[in-house]
Amino acid sequence: MSNFDYFRKRNARKKAYAKEVNTRFVFNGLPSVEITLENNDTMMACVVNKQEKDMAYIYTHQDEPLAIGTVLIAKGLHFLIVEQIIIMQDVEFNKYLALLCNTQFDEWDWGYFKGPEESYINLSMKEDLAAISQQKPILVARQGRFNINDKVKVNGRPWLIIESDTISSPEIGYYSLKATTMSKDELQEDDTVLKSDESILAATLDDRISVTTFQEVELPTEGGFYQSTCKLIQLKVTSDKINFKVPVGIKNFTVKIKQDGTIIERNFKVV
């Protein structure tokens, strides 16, 4: 064996050993704990909880990845996985960013609520998790659970969803809220989310639909298809519907959608 072959072989062993050592903290480090997943599955992970920021870094073995949106329990605390952190170095573990949940919607469906004194969603660009503001609280939850104008009960207090960022992550939704009111019967209901009656479902073939500025409109479509003669605000598009609010400063506009493979026009008049 030449000196060069010996050098390559030694470096290969050294690299493999370093990868093994760098992964031991997942199972043997001080923050290493057994976590519980849905269906009571368990696994070992390293949970570095940054309590002052209500978040944690979760490390798992390379062969045991976690999906974004996963809720896990560690030491009685619930965490929501919101982001996977890509490590450029060749390592044998996965790293995730998780939020410490404080709001429960279902047995294995939790979210993170931050009060108005600290955070507010920045729809233009999500900086870290949210841009700093002194105005509105935020709610972070799995994608698809909430829509704009839904009323949400958090620890018995009602909130109205006024903005949503469903673009930054396909699995996680970021929602900004404002305080609202509910009837006594609504507050006593078990449902966490109460659908707003302010939205309209424009499925008729009327020549013109009367709407008001900032009114929420929901239209069924196919394949997420739509075309509009004006720029729609707070637009949310899914495979089977679009949801938007009527913009300011226009009197009439048209939105094209698709139904049964046919493009249909919906004409609106702002009153």
Biggest sheet strand line-up: 7-8-11-14-13-12-15
Count of separate DSSP helical elements? 3
What share of residues is helical?
A: 10-25%
Distance between the termini: 87 Å
Question: What share of the residues does DSSP label as strand, in percent?
Answer: over 45%
> What class do helices, strands and sheet pairing give?
mainly beta
Uncertain residue ranges: 117-134, 194-206
Coarse shape: elongated
Order of helices and strands: HHEEEEEEEEEEEEEEHEEEEEEEEE
Mean pLDDT, rounded to whole units? 75
Radius of gyration: 24 Å
Number of strands: 23
Describe the main β-sheet briefly: 7 strands, antiparallel
Q: How would you describe what is shown here?
A:
By secondary structure, this protein is mainly beta. It is 11% helix and 45% strand. The strands form 5 sheets. A 7-stranded antiparallel beta sheet has the order 7-8-11-14-13-12-15, with no helix packed on it. About 11% of the residues have low confidence.
Question: How do the strands and helices of this protein lay out in sequence?
Answer:
Blueprint: H1 3-23, H2 25-28, E1 32-36, E2 42-50, E3 55-61, E4 71-74, E5 77-85, E6 93-100, E7 103-106, E8 109-114, E9 119-120, E10 131-132, E11 138-142, E12 151-154, E13 157-165, E14 172-179, H3 184-188, E15 193-194, E16 200-201, E17 209-211, E18 216-220, E19 227-228, E20 233-237, E21 241-245, E22 252-259, E23 262-270
Parallel strand pairs: 16-18, 17-23
Antiparallel strand pairs: 1-2, 2-3, 3-6, 4-5, 5-6, 7-8, 8-11, 9-10, 11-14, 12-13, 12-15, 13-14, 18-21, 19-22, 20-21, 22-23
